[in-house]
Amino acid sequence: MQFLNLADATVITFLTPTMVGIYSAIFLHQPYPRREQLASLLALIGVVFIARPTFLFGNSAYAQSGGGGGSTQPNVEVTPVPTVTDDGQPTTQASRVGDEAATRHFMGILLALLSAVGGAGAFISIKSIGDRAHVITTTNAFSACCTVVTGALIAIAPVVGYAQPQLRFMLPQDLVQWVMVSAITFCGFLTQWFLTIGLSSEAKSNKAQAMVYTGMLWTVVFDRWFFGQNMYWSSFLGCALIVGSAVWVILMPKPEDRHKEAHDIEEDAASRGPEADPMMADTGALKEGDAEELMLMERVQW
């Protein structure tokens, strides 16, 4: 988030559900049907239409929508800097600034992809655990690991001089900050709790992680109602794609339901026997008629 705008970072991090489906097929040997792949792709396209990242739509997209479309990137007027001198030679300062901006953008994309890969690893771990551990146990273990890692980073950062003096331990200074931190804690706990329940209950399918795309709908709603951001036409198209793909995934039968249906059909056919099959019944009748004809011919010969 320090190197990318909100739209670009959102699109890249929303690659996590698709990676979870791929991980499930590789490591857990679970089916990843084409329909679920297509639904995930449609939802990701919907996220792209809502976020409207600059690497696809350019900076003009924000100017046309007034900074809306699900993004909070401000409209900042940047004065162009000449990249060459009057005699056609490149400007050293402009080149240095451009190289630094490109490096920061590349670093942001790399870190966002790493975040998506790490998030997919966490999802696949929860799916692998399934219902073998209680939801609270898994949630507390995840929180404890995050506390240890962040605590170690805060302790080491002053020693190595990384991101100082911003990166340090601080308590909220007033009531508003305490309320905001408490809200983040409560909402974060509920998010992790419900996500763990969903992934554990749908351990053999990819429906739970596909529902993560619906979070973009709440982002659009909050941007419109709380921050006054205007919605662009692409936002409505993206919302329609996300909702449609989510409904499609929900209506898909579970893998065990499809196997159970096929197994029930086989058992039903076996229990009814050949009498219930018209072809077998015709064959049986033909055999009985042949036997009577043979007996009649034997009597005539005698």
From TrEMBL:
Ranges that cross the membrane: 6-26, 38-57, 106-129, 141-163, 175-198, 210-227, 233-251
Region described as Disordered: spans on this chain: 261-282
Membrane topology classification: Multi-pass membrane protein
SUPFAM superfamilies: Multidrug resistance efflux transporter EmrE
Keyword terms, alphabetized: Membrane, Transmembrane, Transmembrane helix
Record localization: Membrane
Disulfide bond found in the keyword field: no
GO CC annotations, alphabetized: membrane
Residue stretches making up the EamA domain: 107-250
Coiled coil start-end: none
Keyword Plastid: no
Predominant place of localization: membrane
Classification via PANTHER family: ACYL-MALONYL CONDENSING ENZYME-RELATED (PTHR22911), SOLUTE CARRIER FAMILY 35 MEMBER G1 (PTHR22911:SF6)
Official protein name in the record: EamA domain-containing protein
Gene source species: Cytospora paraplurivora
